[in-house]
Write a structure and sequence with these properties.
binds magnesium ion, binds adenosine monophosphate, alpha+beta, 4-stranded antiparallel beta sheet
Length: 363
């Protein structure tokens, strides 16, 4: 028997805008929050543009409501639910946005050697991470092997604006990418509406446009995976940057006293272990979201090598291993944005650049 810790408002603390202002400094950004896509959405704009805040929030809420209707596995009429119901029988036509998310999902699946895999859904259900399941029961190796047969990115076949799951029992869950994608769509619409300085945070999936105040970057705190209200340090983001965190503290099940993360390794069928948190800085929120989930699975052993194939999108990554004492392993790209707190500075390990990690030819 085990207790299930629900996903919820905690998400807003995952990555939170942070900063302490001295009296003489200009007013910081102003922020509004609301609930959307099962989590908290926050929109921040510079104090000087406060008049835009209500409009920006309305754009965000309407966009998220629309996307939830098409992407959520919890909405029986959504395109993803229709795709899942048609598994092994027929393909379904998709709206451009749903098609785009599935195409991106397949791409990140390939870039992470299958560690990111939206067809992991039957395993997510097996391990008790579907809402409405109050407890998680022990899972046997036989059950895992049986359900693994219903998983594999190659079974999601995309046509021209269509998708098909080629076997009965397969299903798709966009929980690892949809929020990032939604943040990108919100930001496109805000830009189109002339709002160029804004930060959107949907449950820890963040995209920052422009700056927080004239000459000041947006500041985003990276949450300490071991201490609910603490951060490890601050990221300074400016222009157009995205950041996402995947963590094992956010949503997990406890089965017979052992904690299992909600991120599943699609190769083994078991919840990924070894990492407490991964934070990714990327050129889009979709990329940050998908890459953080995939790099959580790949961990410190396989993740840094996988980053080589993602250099076009991923600007930096940090892994916090799931062990004491605290260690923060960062790529040199991540280090350029990151200022650790004084008490965590001694815990930062900068990973060697990818080339230095490659063995010499012939070895
Ligand atoms: P995130 O918080 O973005 O890392 O997403 C985690 C969610 O993605 C889980 O709650 C599942 O719905 C789904 N998921 C779990 N494991 C994977 C995986 N290996 N690849 C893609 N999505 C996953
Ligand atoms: Mg993700």
């Amino acid at each position: 028997m085990g207790a299930r810790i629900p996903y919820g408002l905690l998400a807003v603390a995952l990555l939170t805008s942070a900063g302490c202002r001295r009296a003489a400094e200009p007013a910081g950004p102003v922020k509004q929050s609301s609930l959307a896509m099962g989590t908290v959405v926050s929109v921040s704009v510079p104090a000087a543009g406060a008049a835009d805040l209500r409009k920006a929030m309305a754009v965000a809420r309407n966009t998220l409501l629309d996307l939830e209707e098409t992407l959520s596995v919890y909405k029986p009429a959504s395109e993803i639910s229709r795709l899942n119901r048609a598994a092994g029988r027929h393909s379904v036509g998709l709206s451009p946005s749903t098609y785009e998310v599935l195409r991106a999902a397949k791409q990140y699946g390939e870039l992470t050697s299958g560690a990111f895999d939206v067809t992991v859904s039957p395993l997510v259900a097996l391990w008790g991470f579907r809402s409405g399941q109050p407890t998680a029961a022990p899972v046997s190796a036989g059950e895992v092997q049986a359900v693994l047969k219903q998983v594999g990115g190659e079974h999601l076949i995309l046509g021209q604006r269509t998708a098909y799951l080629d076997r009965e029992g397969l299903s798709v869950d966009l929980g690892g990418i949809a929020k990032g994608y939604a943040v990108d769509v919100v930001c496109q619409r805000l830009s189109a509406a002339g709002i160029g300085n804004v930060m959107v945070d949907l449950g820890g999936n963040i995209r920052c446009l422009g700056q927080a105040e004239a000459g000041r970057p947006w500041r985003v705190g990276v949450r300490n995976p071991f201490r609910r209200d603490a951060i490890l340090g601050i990221l300074q983001l400016t222009g157009d940057e995205s950041v996402a965190t995947s963590g094992n503290y956010e949503r997990f099940v406890v089965i017979e006293g052992r904690r299992y993360s909600h991120i599943i390794d699609p190769h083994t069928g078991y919840p990924a272990r070894g990492v407490a948190g991964v934070t990714v800085i990327a050129s889009s929120a979709t990329a940050a979201d998908a890459a953080a989930t995939g790099l959580f699975v790949l961990g410190l052993e396989r993740g840094p090598a996988a980053l080589r194939g993602m250099q076009r999108f991923v600007k930096g990554c940090a892994w916090v291993p799931d062990r004491e004492p605290l260690e923060i392993h960062v790529t040199d790209g991540f280090a350029r944005y990151f200022t650790p707190l004084a008490e965590t500075a001694g815990r930062v390990v900068v990973l060697p650049p990818p080339a230095a990690r490659q063995p010499p030819a012939g070895l």
